[in-house]
From TrEMBL:
Domain of life: Eukaryota
One Pfam family, short name: TUDOR
Keywords, in A-Z order: Cytoplasm, Developmental protein, Differentiation, Repeat, Spermatogenesis
Location within or outside the cell: Cytoplasm
Similarity remark: Belongs to the TDRD5 family.
Domain HTH OST-type: 7-80, 130-205
Biological processes, Gene Ontology terms: cell differentiation; spermatogenesis
Protein name: Tudor domain-containing protein 5
Keyword Transmembrane: no
InterPro entries in alphabetical order: LOTUS-like, OST-HTH/LOTUS_dom, SNase_OB-fold_sf, Tudor, Tudor_domain_containing
Keyword Cytoplasm on entry: yes
Lineage of the organism: Eukaryota, Metazoa, Chordata, Craniata, Vertebrata
Residue intervals of the Tudor domain: 349-406
Gene: Tdrd5
Gene Ontology, cellular component aspect: cytoplasm
Organism: Phainopepla nitens
């Protein structure tokens, strides 16, 4: 009974934090989905003796208010307590509509940097509003979907489900409508009005880029041949003649080998797989160049362990395109059987620290093997996203040298000037921090780097008053603002980036000293790029 009471108290804090962050409230089903997404386990209904989520929340009258819509749908809304009234007010003031596309996400150059005695969110000057941002992988999926042919907006959901095996749920990324999603991708997707309805097309510059990659499989297979293969018609004829001349000798050798096996009972062992000359074996990815102290930059939080351990992407069209281009090219190359078979990793290469790539849901990602879990599984670190995951060994492939050039895109971070009041971050504090960060472009204020970890302040500018996350955690009673950066206990226990990614400038990526047929495809396209303005404080 005492364990159930303790679990219920923790759950009340988590549910209140989730509902406060949802301005319009959540349905019971949405609450279940949000809880699973944030806590990575289902609501503990069975452990508490409840049969449904609705039954659970009816036992939280001081936490949840149950409202009924005109269509009969039940909406759950938070009841703020004394410690959360300020946060609820800020969420209630959040803008519903995004700002006009012409207003770039930028920051004011005259913003005041916080001092050690700063206590309130108003210690910074107001910044311009941020908007929801689609994850890079989802952007790539939409572009891939439209690369073959245009689609009517009315058919998008069915086409997405058919192609990727799941529904496109844009609301989970913070968007209120599909048109907001399309506005956020106006640099790559065009909407044209036709008699049949809104038609979605990929912009010509991007479509032509993808079309160039969509070569016939036979051509792709030819590209994936080793440097020893013929590269012109004359050499092909000469090699064909050479093969014909050598056939009798090869036949004799085979016959003799069969004869020896029959008389000696020897087994024929398969030859050791030949490692491609352009396969990465003993190199590491480099990190992005460090950001200047006190500069302001747009960021997207990709993965959260706690406020003291999370990973960000720098928000810029240029960086987004480079990562998307890499994902498209890797999918194009490794999806062909010739390349897939060619870059299979032998057991001897599956070891901790090995840089390689892995296929998940038809997309390929750069990863580093962290540990071997079993004969069939390994745990890998996603260098461009920041998280660890257990995958099948059979999903791994050698990484081509060409894919070393783009630095690891995930930046390890810790929230500046805060420490947990209880020694370690509570589950409610982590849940709140995830809600504050989720699928939203934020403004980051760089403080300093400590042991390769970026300490920065985070600010949500999508409300009437700018919300600074260190102040929110302090006001909720989860954190102390200490005016200095305490080394992250989580990163001290495990920092995969420090283990496997070299600091920027420590190593230059040099192509293998071989006449590789496939030339680098990382030339800059003519697509215009949009960079966030940075300002010194």
């Amino acid at each position: 009974a005492s364990n159930q009471a303790q679990l219920m108290e923790v759950l009340k804090k988590e549910v209140r934090a989730m509902l406060i962050a949802a301005k319009a409230g959540l349905t019971p089903d949405q609450l279940e989905e949000q809880y699973m997404a944030m806590v990575c386990k289902p609501l503990p209904l069975h452990d508490l003796g409840f049969q449904s989520t609705l039954e659970l929340v009816t036992q939280m009258p001081e936490v949840v208010r149950i409202c009924s819509c005109k269509n009969g749908t039940l909406i759950l809304k938070a009841i703020a307590d004394d410690s959360t009234k300020g946060i609820a007010k800020l969420v209630a003031s959040q803008k519903v509509k995004t700002r006009k596309a012409s207003k770039k996400t930028a920051v004011k150059a005259n913003a005041t940097f916080p001092t050690k005695n700063s206590r309130s969110p108003q210690s910074f000057q107001p910044l311009s509003a941020g908007t929801p941002v689609l994850p890079t992988a989802v952007k790539a999926e939409l572009q891939d979907l439209l690369s073959s042919s245009p689609l009517l907006l009315a058919d998008l959901d069915k086409a997405f489900l058919r192609r990727f095996g799941r529904a496109f749920q844009y609301r989970q990324y913070g968007f209120l409508s599909m048109f907001e999603v399309l506005r956020s991708m106006s640099d790559s997707i065009v909407v044209e009005q036709t008699k049949a309805g809104s038609l979605l097309l990929l912009r010509k510059c991007l479509a032509s880029h993808i079309e160039q990659e969509e070569v016939p499989q036979a051509e792709a297979e030819q590209e994936e041949m080793t440097p020893l293969e013929p590269i012109c018609e004359t050499e092909s004829i000469n090699q064909e003649a050479l093969l014909k001349d050598s056939e009798p000798v090869q036949a004799q050798a085979v016959d003799l080998d069969d004869h020896l096996r029959q008389h000696r009972g020897l087994e024929q062992f398969p030859p050791a797989p030949e490692i491609p000359p352009d396969a990465v074996q003993d190199r590491s990815l480099c990190s992005l160049p460090p950001l200047k102290r006190r500069c302001l930059v747009g960021v997207l939080v990709e993965f959260v362990v706690s406020p003291s351990q999370f990973y960000i992407h720098i928000c810029s069209t240029e960086a987004s395109y480079k990562l998307q281009d890499l994902m498209f090219e890797m999918r194009h190359v490794y999806s062909h059987k010739v390349a897939s078979d060619k870059y299979v990793m032998p057991e001897s290469a599956v070891r901790p620290g090995q840089l390689c790539c892995v296929m998940v849901s038809k997309w390929w990602y750069r990863v580093i093997i962290h540990r071997v879990v079993s004969d069939q599984e390994v745990e890998v670190f996603y260098a461009d996203y920041g998280h660890l995951q257990v995958v099948q060994k059979s999903w791994l492939r050698f990484l081509k040298w060409h894919y070393l050039k783009l630095p690891a895109q995930a930046i390890p971070c810790s929230l500046a000037w805060v420490k947990p009041v209880e020694g370690r971050w509570s589950s409610a504090a982590i849940l709140l921090f995830k809600h504050l960060c989720r699928f939203k472009e934020l403004v980051g204020i760089v403080d300093e780097y400590v042991d390769g970890v970026l300490y920065l302040f985070l600010c949500d500018t999508s409300t009437k008053e700018d919300v600074y996350f260190h102040s929110v955690l302090r006001d909720m009673g989860y954190a102390d603002v200490c005016g200095e950066n305490i080394p992250s206990q989580e990163f001290e226990e495990l920092n995969p980036s420090a283990l496997y990614v070299q600091p920027s400038g420590n190593a230059e990526v040099v192509e293998p000293d071989l006449c590789l047929q496939q030339e680098s495809r990382d030339a800059d396209s003519g697509t215009a790029t949009l960079k966030l303005d940075k300002a010194e404080l």
